[in-house]
Each structure stands twice: as C-alpha cells, then as structure tokens.
Predict the 3D structure of the following.
Amino acid sequence: MTLTLYYHPLSSYSWKALIALYENDTPFEPIIVDQDTHAAFAQVWPMAKFPVLVDHERGETVPESSIVIDYLDRYRSGAVRFTPSDPESAWRTRLWDRFFDLHVHSAVQKIVGDRIRPPEQKDPFGVADAHAKLATAYGVLEAEAVKQDWFSGGAFGLADCAAAPALFYADKVQPFGESQPATRAYLDRLSARPSFARVLVEAEPYFKLFPAS
C-alpha cells in the first residue's frame, strides 16, 4: 500500500480526508491514532495533529486536511476533482472550505473541548462566544445553501468534504432550527453521499466517546 492515513474515527478533520479518499476509492492503509500509537505517530509528524497522509512511493508526509485533499487531487486524482480547474470556481471553493473550517469547525471544537475540561477550568465566556459565532455562520450558510446543492463550484468537492463533518457536529452542539431549512437539507444530502455515509458507519462504535454535554 503506497498511501497511509493516520487519523481518528471521531476526528472531524479526519472525516474530511476520509471522505475525499472514499469518493475516488483511493486505496490506503488506515492507522488509528490512539494512546498506543500516538508516540509512533509523533515520529511521523512531530506536531501530532491528525489527519496525516504518508505517500511512501513519493516519500512525502502530508498534514492538514485541506492540503491532503489538494495532494490527492494532484497525485492520486480520480473521477471526482475536489477543486475545480476553473479559476473562478476554484477560489470560491477554497473560500467555503476555509469558511467551514474557521467559522464552523473551530466554534464546534471550542464547545466540545470545554465539555471535557475539569470544572475549575471551564470557559463559559468562550463557549458563549462560540455559540454566537455559530449562529452568525448559520445565517451565512443558509443564504448560500438556498442557491446551490454543493459548495464546490456546483459539484461535490473540497468545500463539501469540509462541510460534512463541520455541519454534522455543529448540529449536535447547536441544532439547526426552523430558520435553517436549506442548511438542514444540505446536511441531509451530504449524509446520503456514500463516502460520508461510510465514514459515519465506521465512526458509530466510537460515538459513545463523544461528550454529549
């Protein structure tokens, strides 16, 4: 196997990379990073942040989910092109990829991270701020979701790989309401996508570890 992916089944950014791999049926060796494998993983990527893709054939170690997907587009291309070749569609795709990571993912991580902190280290101000940021992001997404089925230049791609885990977990910590029907419909389309459906099935045994509150 020429590709190895270091990841965790509950990691939203790992999901993003997995979706891209599954979209094009790209063969790879999966290695789950846990307490037993963390030290070895840190030898592969000293920052010890997953996912990380290792291309043994080319001798490359590729961290960061968006960069992993760019790398797959360039060196392991398939039927799905994740960033359109058209420059106009490409910059818009990258915009929404960044939007989901920076304005949805990050807020969700703040909320979830606070749930596993010791009581004396809770950050209620930071959590309230994250919820407020999510509410603003929901408004932006709803306005865009009514215009198109996918956020990657009209076809499934990079931005949608980012959207799937971001919105799945966002809906858990701050459920979509009656004012977000288009966003809800978009998440439903993402969940029905075979690549994301597969990720969810594989993650199901680990959902018990997700801090519900």
Summary: The longest strand covers residues 3-7. The two ends are 40 Å apart (CA to CA). Residues 87-115 form the longest helix (29 residues). The mean pLDDT is 97.
